[in-house]
Structures are given as C-alpha cells and as structure tokens.
Amino acid sequence: MQSNRREFIKQASVIGLGVGALSLTLTPTDLMAVNNSENVLPDVSAYTHLLNRTSFGVNQESMRMIKRLGYRKYIEQQLNPDAIDDSQLEAYIDEYLPTVNQSIAQTRLQVRNDEIRRLQVADELTMATYLRAIYSKKQLLQVMVEFWNNHFSVYHLDGPVVFLKTQEDKEVMRPLALSSFSQLLHASAKSPAMIYYLDGYASTKEAPNENYARELMELHTLGVDGPYTHHDIDEVARCFTGWQINQRNGKFRFNRRDHDNDEKIVLGHEIAKSGGVFDGEQVLDILATQPATAAFMAKKLCRHFIADYPSDAIIESTTDAFIDSQGDIKACLRHILLSDEFINSQNQKLKRPFHYMVSVTRSLNVKFSDRRSVRATRQMFDSLGQRPFFWQSPDGYPDVASYWESTTGMLFRWNFVNDVSFENFPGYQYRLESLIAQPHTPENIYRQITEKIIFRKMSAYDESILFDYLYDGAENNKVSPIKIQGALALAMGSPYFQLN
Amino acid sequence: MHTRRSFLQIGSSNKVENKNADILIYVFQRGAADGLNLVVPYGDENYYANRPSIAIAKPNSSEGAALDLDGFFGLNPALSALLPIYQSNDLAMVHACGSLNSSHSHFKAQDDVDRGALNQDINSGWLARYANSYENNDSTAFKSVALSKSIPKSLSSAEQVVALDNIASFVIKAPESESVDIQNNLLTLFAGATSLDKVAQATFNGLEEVASINPEDFPVENDATYPSSGFGNRFKDLALLIKSGIGVEMASIDIGGWDTHNDENTALTPLAQDFAETLATFYTDMGDRMQNITIIALTEFGRRVAENGSGGTDHGTGNVAFVMGGSVNGGQVFTDWPGLRAEDLVGPGDLLPTTDYRTVIAELMEKRMNYTNFEELFPDFEVPEYLGIFKN
Q: Which end of chain A is more exposed for a tag (fewer CB within 10 A), N or C?
C-alpha cells in the first residue's frame, strides 16, 4: 500500500528521526523497516518499453516516430537502418573526429609525425561511439553495434588495437551488426584487432597459440559448457595458424608458411589436409551452425533484451528462430521483440553505465559546447566502470545488474545526472527553457517530466515526492529554474529511469 | 555517534555473532604476479638456469641482488620495505602456493580464486560467504568494504557491502541549496525492497557515515607516508576508515599490472615497490592495531619458470602468497619446495603448487576469524593439515 508508506514517512519526519551530518529525514534502515514489497514500479507504455530496450534512451524524436509508425513498423524501420538518414551526424564525426573514418596507415603516419597523440585515436572512436549512441536515428543499429563490440570484446589499449579497433568498428561491427551471425563470426576472425588481441598473430605451425581457439569456442560460439574438449582447442588452434596481420596496411593476411597444413579433426569433423586458409573458415562454419552456438547466442540476446535471467521457454524459442533463419540477426530480434516475454519484461533490466549516460543526454537533448566534454566524459566512463572497448578480458562487459549494482556505481550515476542537470558537467549544455515549456507550475513541470524526460508515470507516492520538492521551490506557483533542474535530476536519478 | 549508529545497524537476524575476529584485508595482485622474482629461490640453481637474463642475483653478489630471508629464499630488492616487518616476525610468505587446477586464463583463474571454488555453479565470492555467515549487533553498512569502483567477485553476493573508490569522491554532488533536498528525495524514491533499492540505501548509509568522518581527526600516524599511487591511496583511505570506527570488518583491495610478458623487471620493479611500500606504510601507520588486522595477498596464478624470448614470463601455476599482521608466525617462508628441475615442473613448465591457497585462507579463517564452515567456504576443497602460519 503506497499510502501506508507515505503515512509512515510523514509521521517519521514529524517525530524527527532525522539525525546526522546530512540531516536526512529518514535513515535507510527505517525505510527498510517499512519495506513494502508493493513498491512495484507502474508499467510503462508498450512504446516506451520497446524504445527503452531498442535504443539508448527514449527521446521526443523517437517517441514521435514510434507513434507515427506503430510497434511493428517501428521495429521494421529500425531493422533497415540504411534507409534512415544520419548524414548530419556522420558529417560532424568526419569533421571533428577525423581518425574514425580514415585508414590505419594515415592515422599511424599522423601519430608518427606527432600530429596527433596515440590516445587521441582511442578518444576519437570512444566519442564517435558516444555521439552515435546519442544522436543517431538508427538506434537499434547502435544497440546491436554495442552488443557485438562487447561479444567480440577487445581491449582498446592492447598495443596496436588502438588503431585496429577503429577499423574493426567501421568494417566489421557497423556494417554487419544486423547481418547474420556467421558473417560476423567470419569477419571477426579475420579482424586484425581480434587477431592481435587474442594472439593469433603469433600462432604458427611450430608453436600454435591456443588463446583465440579457446575464446572462439568458449566466448564467441559454443559457450563454456559447450560440446568441445581440450583436444578440440588444440586442433582449432592449428587450423588458425598463419592468420596474421599485414604490417603495411593493417589488414588480414594469410601466411601459408606459418600454417599447419596437415589434417585436423574439429568437433568430429574432418578438416582435410592442404586446406590453407579454408581450414579456419571451415571451423567457423562448423561452429556457427552448432545447436550449442544457437542456444548460447539466443540466451545472450534474450539476456540483453529481456531480462538478466530469461526463461528457458524464450531461450528455446529464440534458439529455434536462430536455427531456422541460419543465424539471421534480424529474424532473432523480431522473434524476441514480438514475444510476450519481452512485452512483459518491464523494469527488469538495469541500464548499464554507458546506456545510462547516453539516456540522460538524450532526454535533456544535451549539446557539447567544447572539447572539455571529451575528457570529462572519458573520466565519467571510467568512474562508472564502462568505457567503450575498455573491458580488459575477452568476455566483455557483464550484462546483468548484479555486477553493476554497487554503492560507488550508484553514487556516480547520481553525480553524473546531477552535474548534467545543474549544468555543472564540463562542456555539456542543454536548454531548460525549450525543454520544459512555460508556465512553470509544479503540475505543468511534472507533466512534462513524465511526457518528455522519463516517458512514464510515477506511482502516486513517488509523484508526491516530486511535487513536494517543486512546491517548496515555487513562488506564486512559479518554480525557479534551479528547482526544475533538481526535479529533472531526481526523476532521472530515480529507479524510473535507471531501470529499463 | 551512538544514537546514529543504532539506526545504521543492519538489523536483527538469527545469525551467529562473531566478535573478536580480526579485520581481514584481502589484497589481489591482478595479472599474475611473478612469485619467483618477488621471493627468489636463490638457493635453487635451476632458478638461474631457467632465467638467464631476468633472474634476481644471489644476496650480496651484486647491485640489485636479492635480500636474504632464510638462506634459501631472498626478497626482490624492490620489496625491501617489507624486510623489517619480516624480521620482526609479522610477515610471512607461502611459496609454491596456488591451485593445481588453475586455468591459464587470467579471468577464469581470478574468478576461481575470488569464488574459492572451481565449480561454476558457485556464484558468490568466498569472502561474501564468510561475511554472510555471521552478524554482530554492532555491524554496520561498512562490514565489508571494497576499495574499488565495483564489487569484486570475492564479495559478490555479500548482504552488506560498500564499494568506495576513494573517500574524497564519496560525496553527492549538487548545488548547496539543493543538496539536502535532493538526497532526502532520492532516498525516498529508493525506499523499496528491490536489490537496486538496497544498493541505493547502502549508498546513503555510506554517504552519511563517511560525511561524519573528519579526516583531520584520524591522521596518518607514526610518521608514515603512503606512496601517492592508486594502491597507496586506497590503503590510506582504508586506514582512515578503520581508525574512524566506521565498522570495517573486512576489506578488499586490488593492485593490477602484474602481467609481465615482456621486459619483466622494468615493469615489476616499480610495481613491487608500490606494493611493498604501501603495505609497510600501512603497517607503520596502524601501529598496535596490527595485532588484530590480518592481510593476505594473493594472485591468480604464478608465471612460467623459464623466461620467454622477450625478457618476460608467460602464464604459470605455483606462486607466492604474502600474509602480514600481529597474528602471523612471521619471519619465515612456509613451503614444501618442489624444485625447479624440468621433471619437477607441471604443465607447460610451471612451479608445482604444493600448498593450495585455500589451505592458507582456511587456517586464517579458523585461527583468526573463528570460522570453520569450510564446506560452505570451499565446497570443492578438502582442507588439509595447516602449515602453522597463524597464531591462535
């Protein structure tokens, strides 16, 4: 009963439980004592839910679009990103983040000539990723690019990966994010960033390196409990010997001299001798079509889009969708997004830090006024523990709330949203007056927050918290700008905006 | 203080009490620290045969030589800050320590050590299982503290845990006029019973407690000066938290960067210095409090006995562990030394771990933490006879 809790809190503040340096009216323990299992957040609309999960945050533009197209057509529109125009954004990236689209050779030359710093190359890709997540109209594409960058995770500062990752993002992840799993797997296997990161470049017939072979099966395809043995790892490693990086142009190169051309057996399949580069390609085909791979990828997609621990039923039906479509990513997404389990999965995901930061900037329609924003953004990614391409081990950033729920994590989320809302975040600006229209009465502000910022209603009780705050800051029924900013910070700092 | 503390208590439960346990500090050297170059088996000729270019010289033989510990092992000179503690019998090492079943993958091996188990079905950390096993009536939100941004796996599933990157930044940022309102209102917006609500409540508990500490009341003592490194700062903050009486019962601190595949000693020397000077400073700073503080430092696995072609070492198995505190039977290197001849090694040429790391933890838990539920703590490990590392 919401009202009971409200009553308790009122009484508590009257009798003055507030103690301590911060004059908190209540201590968390008191609230836990009230402990209402009824504190279930009210459902969001189906549109908000779909946008929450298929974008980096609902904003007014995306809400208008889905209202115009409807649920299914919006999904189809997003599954066909080539027809969506992002040219303004891409022109901006081209101009201000030039290394994102130029060749490795050119970037290397500029670094050698001290025209740009090596770390600037990393920063530019990080910022381009952030800007695309914020401003792109191809939101589902950006979500899937993040998904695949994380599935095929490499560490940005691992030697030449700082250059190679830019190329991989441009040539593998973006163009293929909505293609088929098999295409992505092949492209990733030949991606120099991956070849360097998992030591494939040093794997020769004399000394095959197991690193890629192991992670290929454990993390990219079959899963750690998948049907493979240590012997399979040895054999797969032999198949990929000679898969190297062309030092001149940073592209894939197959070095026949370092390749073990004898026959191998992988998961019971015979790989005939003298296969050359075809050995590894056959391995990828075998792995891409294993039922274990379908199940592993289905679970991972369901975890990302539905819930940390999706039901067996939805994993199984998604596995079927994966197998029936030969790993077609669009088909899997359609299956998931149109399932009842998806529709009923409201509030079950916690936004990860990157998603959270992007969604704040999307809701406020933040513009970046100067380069201070680059450093401050990078530092905030680090404080929250999720800078793109910065997970050091090959398993990628965790996709379950339990990893991200920590006191420091919580605090930095609040501090980010406070700093941005109160315009204290370096280089971030937004226009309060165009975001929240006059008149600035508490009612009108609250309505706009639910309709334009968090895109959902609050419970009657939580609504009253926000109202009380706004009323306290109103004179003649007009709320001061700093209180409006505070209300934005509260709404976006609350579970209504943290949970997805 | 007393009044407020009563509000911040965790609450009542049926759990056992566990008074008089030491404060346990768990240090994780992430990246696989090279135990053979930190605590050098200079008495084993095969050490030098295996490491022609990166071995640490025998004591008194040259500049940069090892500092003798017991006639067989020597300390890397970069760890010299630890020597006086060793000599005053408050520091011991356990060599050829580790897990026979260790993976050669950093993240899998770290995960296994943090969980204290190989069985993948066990998701919680070993430290969390201990933390959840008891509850004192004066336990606070700071019962277990991770000096880090996120909760390390070792404390995963702990019922009460504060992750605190550093004290100075552990404060909510808002304009002064709005600060109190924002906090009060956030607190009520997170008043539910979900795990997110609980984390938010713990955050407010932590914020309030930390805000009540005046750092000037708890200065660094005994003329100690912490290194200005991340590791140093974390121990400095931890010392302050312990002194303030905020209620730290166990803490976890990481120090990374030990993955020395290339040009090993160039990377290892400053890192080892940071490690040693930080621990030594903490020891000095804490003074008599060290009688009830035990530090254990582990790493995920050791490094290959033979050096590689780039003046570094690859992933191995057996390693060295450090234990420090007033309760340690210090001044010795505990080991059942397996030897470094080719036939003594395991896997691709690794030091054989003759003492499982869990044997060390188990003895610590029984003798210093009053805890013996090893079926819960290490479900797939049979605890053997103790080595006698800790006093009762």
A: N
